[in-house]
Amino acid sequence: MFIINSPLVEKSELQSNIFLFKIHCPEIALIIKPGQFLNIRVTQAFFPLLRRPFSVSDVEGEYIYILFSIFGEGTQILADKKNGETIDILGPLGKGFNLDDDYYTAVIVAGGLGAAPFPFVTRKLQKNKEIISFVGSRTSNEIITYGMENVYTASDDGSIGFKGNVVELLKSKNVELINKKIKIFGCGPTPMLKALAEYCINNDLNCEISTECVMACGFGICQGCPIESAQLKDRFKLVCKDGPVFNVKNILL
Ligand SMILES: Cc1cc2nc3c(=O)[nH]c(=O)nc-3n(C[C@H](O)[C@H](O)[C@H](O)COP(=O)(O)OP(=O)(O)OC[C@H]3O[C@@H](n4cnc5c(N)ncnc54)[C@H](O)[C@@H]3O)c2cc1C
Ligand code: FES
User: Which of 28, 32, 188, 222 has a CB 3.0–4.6 Å from the CB of 217, allowing a cystine?
Assistant: First the structure.
């Protein structure tokens, strides 16, 4: 784990309020795994005091990428940074996706900003797995398909793709997926992850999800990010240390 001030080398606004930062950070780029995250101190000023967590969105050589939208004060400060400014990064943190199981087809299910970790997952899997990506959001303006392949879209208002949420879209493709040996990778808002977990457990599908919660330290010290465990022996796990990626069978949402 490193704490590093790394330069922002390229800032782009992929679409309205969706920012992609390319950061030169060889120390982390060489070791970080898909699904792990970074805890970023957005300013050296006193407020906001706490770091903000972001998935590593992609890695290219010595460069790491984050993808985010302006949500509150911290992400606003981050979005205002200019090329050449440094970013105070703590990472890599948490446990990422297990990409090495026995499956032929990776099924990615992303809701809204939950698309953030999947360019890196796609890059790692595209040589030896078939990938099918399901991406959903409220409207067409918020759909993020950056860095993904073989994409089916869904929107709540029907302005793009399937009309409904992304888990309903996944269910509608059940017949096409049933004969494939699949593993599902999900990330998005908690209600979406809950629906995805229920579907996968009921249909005995192998599924890992990247969960979200408000964090402080990011590495297991403050105990501020509990998630209920499905195992009786330990009632709670920590999202930052035991996750953020969990098999759906191991947690209760
Ligand atoms: C492991 C992990 C990975 C993440 N990856 C990404 C990513 O790749 N891209 C991205 O855009 N966002 C990501 N997030 C969410 C991101 O961390 C929050 O949007 C960010 O911390 C908000 O900071 P802010 O200062 O802008 O908002 P704040 O002003 O801190 O918060 C505004 C509101 O959002 C709530 N909030 C704060 N933090 C979170 C949070 N972590 N989750 C949900 N609500 C929160 C606060 O309670 C408050 O009500 C991730 C979160 C986690 C836990
Ligand atoms: S954020 Fe401190 S223990 Fe998880």
Answer: 222
What is the model's pLDDT at position 237? 96
Check: CB of residue 69 under 8 Å from CB of residue 20.
Answer: no
Rounded to two decimals, the pTM is 0.96
Cα–Cα–Cα angle for 66, 67, 69, rounded to 5 degrees:
130
What residues does 3 pair with on adjacent strands? 90
Query: What are the chain's domains?
Result: 2-93 (2.40.30.10), 97-207 (3.40.50.80), 211-253 (2.10.240.10)
Ligand 2 atom with the smallest distance to the CA of 238 is: 4
Any residues with Cβ below 6 Å from ligand 1, and which? 37, 48, 52-55, 66-69, 71-75, 113, 116, 212-215, 244
CB 147 within 8 A of CB 118: yes
